[in-house]
Write a structure and sequence with these properties.
alpha/beta; 5-stranded parallel beta sheet
Length: 322
């Protein structure tokens, strides 16, 4: 179990909350926000959900209408903020400036990042932020229904790769899953929430990324890239990198998977996945990003060639002689 006392005190001390997550949200982020909103309302608090998006992952698009991309300038007296699944304050995007000066609770499980906020419920041993939110429900004695249980399981499955990333210390996680399943959800329906709803164009894009994947140092590093022109040519509107990581990480001998994705001209995001023998969270943090030991990312300016070269230089001393 994780120490939630600071978070419990913060929640009990305020009556009106703005609930925020990170930009480019994933399943764990949006599920944490929605579940947290339900928790606050059940406690008699007022809460609104906020995210700058984009909601371009097929598994979360149906939740977009629950969120606002702005925060009103006339903030009510006594308002406070809860930021979920963010390792650094800038991950909230423009929303960060809108909540400046308000008391802030941070709930997160990333292994790399900054210490910020007035109160913190942060534990890198937790497999997902939804796991920490589930504990808050239980520690505060608040019952939740099957919809919340489904969201909590959805977020957990998203961040654990459907339990692939859990180690020998995962017993408590499965006990928490059992409590969720007892409420009426199931891993079968959540599997389709996480991995279903893909369109054919996204699968064709995935095929291109797999085809151009480079192997370095005996498949220990697998590197590929996605340009804006790729999505435009295939008319792909969804993101499919989670499937890419999942497939490439099954290659025998693989240690790290890297995806360079063009976001706009001269600006790229880099996603990193590891089998845990290399801490990609620390590597991402060295470039101004963050994440977990096994999953992280950062944003950078440059060209595809320059970023590719930087990644090879970074991983060479770690992987070449492994």
């Amino acid at each position: 179990m994780y120490d939630s006392r600071e978070a419990v005190h913060f929640i009990r001390s305020h009556s009106r909350f703005f609930v925020l997550g990170h930009k480019e949200p994933d399943g764990d982020c949006v599920a944490s926000e929605v579940a947290m909103g339900s928790l606050l309302v059940a406690l008699g608090k007022k809460a609104t959900l906020h995210s700058v998006g984009p909601f371009d992952r097929p598994e979360i698009v149906e939740l977009e209408n629950r969120f606002s991309s702005t925060i009103p300038a006339d903030r009510p007296a006594g308002a406070a903020v809860i930021i979920l699944d963010c390792s650094t304050p800038d991950r909230t995007g423009p929303l960060g400036e809108m909540i400046d000066g308000l008391p802030c609770l941070v709930i997160d499980h990333h292994s790399a990042g900054e210490s910020f906020g007035d109160a913190r419920f942060v534990d890198s041993a937790a497999p997902s932020t939804t796991m920490l939110v589930q504990q808050l429900f239980e520690d505060l004695g608040v019952a939740f229904d099957v919809e919340v249980a489904r969201l909590l399981l959805f977020g957990l499955c998203t961040d654990t790769g459907f339990f692939r990333h859990l180690g020998v210390s995962g017993a408590e996680t499965f006990r928490a899953v059992a409590r969720l399943v007892e409420l009426g959800t199931s891993t079968a329906e959540v599997y389709m929430m996480v991995y279903g709803r893909r369109d054919l164009a996204t699968r064709k894009l995935l095929a291109e990324l797999l085809t151009r994947t480079e192997s370095h140092w005996g498949d220990r590093l697998l590197l590929t890239w996605q340009m804006i022109a790729d999505k435009e040519r295939l008319a792909a509107t969804q993101r499919g990198e989670d499937d890419l990581y999942r497939l490439l990480q099954t290659i025998r001998g693989n240690v790290v998977v890297a995806l360079i994705r063009e976001e706009k001209e001269g600006f790229f995001s880099v996603g990193l996945r590891s089998n845990s023998s290399v801490d990609v969270g620390a590597i991402a943090a060295s470039f101004g990003g963050g994440g977990h030991r096994q999953a992280s990312g950062f944003d950078t300016r440059g060209t595809l060639a320059s970023i590719r070269g930087t990644l090879l230089d970074t991983f060479r001393p770690l992987l070449e002689e492994m």
